[in-house]
Design goal:
The protein folds into four domains: 169 residues, 3-Layer(aba) Sandwich (Rossmann fold); 62 residues, Orthogonal Bundle (Helicase, Ruva Protein, domain 3); 130 residues, Up-down Bundle (Zinc Finger, Delta Prime, domain 3), CATH 1.20.272; 138 residues, GMP Synthetase, Chain A, domain 3 (2-Layer Sandwich). The chain is elongated. By secondary structure, the chain is α/β, with parallel strands linked by helices. A hairpin with a 3-residue loop joins β8 and β9. Strands 2-3-4-1-5 form a five-stranded parallel beta sheet, with helices on one face. The chain has 29 helices and ten strands. About 6% of the residues have low confidence. Helix content is 59%, strand content 9%. The longest helix is centred in the C-terminal third of the chain and has 23 residues.
């Protein structure tokens, strides 16, 4: 056969020709120039990305007569001999068919012999993951310490199947999938030098169908050239790759957006009658909406698009779709794809999916303009959800939130006739009757420690309420706490969680469980004065606020001198 496939004719002969693997070729070139060549390499990556080609180029570079050089000259006897396979010292072994222990033992026995034609004997083992465990074990010692004139280059598409003991003995290079743009540029060069007429969009279609493999791309291009007559067109590329044209996907997507079920089913029928595979179509349709989502979220990352070409029709269509709508479409298509794998009638599931997609948009909106408003509606829903969350937080942690809010103050101003918080005078009076100075001093002595504990335990809202509060009387089982502001007092006593936390804190510090009574500052003065003026004054005045009777006598003398009208008494 005189004809050779394109991927064989245009196989890279130098590192410069290896497309899309600059991170590998640059490292190898520097190692060649610095004469830091390793005895074993592992090239891993997807199919058709240049692993075996790079291995042969490396074998030529180390054996080139002009070495050390970064690129093989491809003109000396060594380079030409390695290229055409006439030099026996460079062996390319297929591990898929030579995966037994005997084959590896044969290699192990022969590596000790010096090369006959070139400086280095190179073993290129392709698909090395196919070797058996026994073969890997036979290779271990030789791979770790081969003779100075031997180099091993292992290539694989499935590195996870190789034992770690083998990987650790090699310098590993991971080959990446080649980008569509790089594949297109390479194919342009090939068709120009081959004198073949080819549309650029057809090359883009072939590159996207190749899924990152240069060999696959050149094989598809070879088929498209054979199928075409004078020039390779987009239709030729679609026929060869089995893909669905973007124009058809745009048309069907527009029918779904407009809820036109009839048009959608007619388009699907035409597609299937033309011989397109249902499974391939739904895969292309999923990637179509995936690319649309990528374009809407990251329009500058054109290389991230898998199947779509950015034409004006696609851009306009993308603007009409909301992201939530695209999520639902992909979900329905993905579920349908899974169901189609286990049925003998995939067309039925595909038709049902088209009907669902058309009705999906109809349930949300009746026309395209409403569909365009979906992002704004979703934004409004998100704002409402955020407000509801904030309200819930205020209700749960309302202690500080309401304290800082001006709303209750405004309401209080408008309802001046309504009574505010009323302290439990009877309970406070009964507590004052049995209050002792020692109990009060115990509470005050541990008050600061309790506040610090609340702050350290992330109970800042409870501690904030007590910042301007203090214990003013205490008995063996009850504490009277005076609050500077009436609203703080009401908030504290209405909050069951607050009372429980303070009670537990006092219990941990004093070993007693106290009942809490709260009183605003202004009401406390009146309750205290009434109590002191009662029959219990002489017995209990020493136990309230920690004050002495001498303080009260001073006040009495001042009242006599200046009168109650102009005298103001402060604690």
């Amino acid at each position: 056969m005189n004809y050779q496939a394109l991927y064989r004719v245009w196989r890279p002969q130098s590192f410069m020709d290896v497309v899309g693997q600059e991170h590998v070729t640059k490292t190898l070139q520097n190692a060649l120039l610095q004469q830091k060549i390793s005895h074993a390499y592992l090239f891993s990556g997807p199919r058709g990305t240049g692993k075996t080609s790079a291995a042969k180029i490396l074998a030529k570079a180390v054996n080139c007569e002009g070495a050390p050089i970064s690129e093989p000259c491809n003109e000396c006897d060594s380079c030409r001999g390695i290229t055409d396979g006439s030099i026996p010292d460079v062996l390319e072994i297929d591990a898929a068919s030579n995966n037994g222990v005997e084959e590896i033992r044969d290699i192990r026995d022969k590596v000790k012999y010096a090369p006959s034609s070139v400086r280095f004997k190179v073993y290129i083992i392709d698909e090395v993951h196919m070797l058996s465990i026994g073969a890997f074990n036979a290779l271990l010692k030789t791979l770790e310490e081969p003779p100075k004139h031997v180099m091993f280059i292992l290539a694989t598409t499935e590195p996870h199947k190789i034992p770690l003991t083998i990987i650790s003995r090699c310098q590993r290079f991971d080959f990446r999938r080649i980008t569509s743009n790089s594949i297109v540029d390479r194919m342009k060069l090939i068709v120009e030098q081959s004198g073949i007429s080819c549309e650029e969009k057809a090359l883009q279609m072939v590159a996207r169908a190749a899924d990152g493999g240069m060999r696959d791309a050149l094989s598809l291009l070879d088929q498209a050239i054979s199928y075409s007559e004078e020039a390779v067109t987009v239709e030729d590329a679609l026929t060869v790759t089995g893909a669905v044209s973007q124009g058809f996907l745009n048309k069907l997507s527009k029918a779904i957006l407009e809820s036109d079920t009839v048009s959608g089913l007619q388009s699907l029928d035409e597609l299937l009658l033309s011989g397109k595979d249902a499974n391939r179509f739904i895969e292309d349709f999923i990637f179509f909406y995936r690319d649309m989502l990528m374009y809407k979220t990251a329009p500058n990352l054109e290389e991230s698009l898998e199947r779509v070409l950015l034409d004006e029709e696609f851009k306009e269509l993308s603007e009409m779709y909301g992201q939530e709508h695209i999520y639902e479409l992909i979900h329905v298509l993905n579920k349908t794809q899974q169901e189609m794998r286990w049925t003998n009638h995939p067309r039925i599931f595909l038709e049902v999916a088209i009907v669902k997609l058309c009705q999906l948009n109809k349930s949300n909106s009746n026309n395209i303009n409403q569909s365009m408003a979906l992002p704004e509606i979703q934004s409004l829903i998100n704002k409402i959800s955020n407000l509801e969350e904030e309200i819930s937080k205020l209700k749960l942690n309302g202690v500080t939130a309401v304290a800082d809010s001006p709303v209750p103050q405004k309401k209080a101003a408008r309802t001046g006739g309504r009574k505010g918080f009323q302290a439990p005078v009877g309970k406070i009076t009964e507590t004052l009757k049995v209050a002792t100075k020692q109990d009060l001093q115990n509470i005050k002595g541990n008050w600061g420690a309790m506040l610090n504990a609340l702050v350290q335990n992330q109970m800042r809202s409870q501690a904030a309420l007590l910042n301007e509060a203090e214990p003013v009387a205490a008995s063996s089982n009850t504490v009277v706490i005076k609050f500077k502001y009436e609203i703080h007092c009401q908030m504290a006593l209405d909050n069951v969680k607050f009372i429980e936390i303070i009670t537990n804190s006092l219990y941990q510090l004093l070993g007693k469980r106290y009942n809490l009574l709260g009183v605003p500052d202004d009401q406390w003065l009146k309750i205290r004065e009434d109590f002191l003026n009662s029959s219990h004054h002489l017995e209990s005045s020493d136990e309230i606020d920690g004050n002495n009777r001498e303080d009260d006598s001073v006040v009495s003398e001042a009242i006599k001198l200046f009168g109650e009208d102009i005298l103001e008494v402060r604690d």
